[in-house]
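Much of the work behind modern protein science is quiet bookkeeping, done one molecule at a time. The protein below has been through that process, and both of its lines are reproduced in full.


***
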Amino acid sequence: MRDLDGRLALLTGASSGLGPVIARRLRREGVRFVLSARDRTRLAALAEELGDAVVVPADLARRGEAERLAAAAGEVDILVTNAGLPANGQLVDFEVPHIDHALDVNVRSAMVLTRLLLPAMLERRSGHVLLMASMAGRVPAPRSSVYNASKFAIRGFGHSLRAELRGSGVGVSLVSPTFVSGAGMWAETGLRASVRETTPERVAEAVVRAIRRDAAEILVAPVEQRLFSRVVLAFPGLMQPFLGSAAVPQEAVERQHAKR
């Protein structure tokens, strides 16, 4: 989708973290918006800043909300599934409802929104689905089994759907960032990663580039992390002893659990 000017995009997770940064960058390309998240006040402020934006608050952890959002959004040209939860920690520390909560937001909402918005795109033979993934969908790590599972699922869904829609005029892309400083789930911990981080602006640039070029997946990470992820995917058993370097620090896990 080379020309983004005047296109209508549904952006989830728009009110905080990477959402506003992505929205502002797409707005510079002339994109119009349906903005969604839980915080109506922040959404309204962002909509006023962007102009030409509709606000549809939704809690994607609740069944039926993704369906309601899709109906309210209507026939959009671009879907950006940015909503997500951290969901880090030892599996035995998760209650089953916490697992359901993470999977409903990180996986189910993206799949349901795509399913419901896709027919109109296919009918027009034009559209793009941008799935926000993560390097956590390429490199499993201790204390991240639930989050890793959700991001591996999104990557599998995205790459499979891309193959399914080949030749249809509808593109599917994944953007997979490493730890992001300045905004988003990792930045909210107030900690620094043991590996090099990236910035919200680079993630937003990757979103625009992925849509314009119909890229299969863009890794927003330093070269050493991209290479490491390829080795892990190729030799998962051999790389097990080295996966601790990708783990979320225990202090971050404790802070995230305290917010639940």
Q: What stands out?
A: Residues 8-258 form a domain with the Rossmann fold fold (CATH 3.40.50.720). The first helix runs from residue 18 to 27. The two ends are 39 Å apart (CA to CA). The helical segments are 18-27, 40-50, 65-73, 96-124, 145-164, 200-213, 223-234, 250-258.
